[in-house]
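User: Teach me something about this protein's shape.
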Amino acid sequence: MFGTSESTIKRLLANIKKEWVQPKLSGCSGYVHLDATYWGHNWGVMLALDEESGYPLYVEFIKSETNMDYTNAIHSLEE
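Assistant: First, the predicted structure itself:
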């Protein structure tokens, strides 16, 4: 659709994750939106955003969306 291969998207996203440190939730000002987006059938990104600032609070690559993925994200945000 965008003229970019799946492997290019994965490589670019992997580079972002390696350079990014997950912030602590204490700086969050309100609601947190948590959801997953998929590229292909077997990989995606789970992302939590601070509603007010739009700042990413959590990023994790996933193969499928499970309850455990959400549990892990919530525990990471609480720590």
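Now, about its shape. The longest strand covers residues 32-38. The chain has a mean pLDDT of 77. If you'd like, I can walk through any region in more detail.
User: That's plenty for now, thanks!
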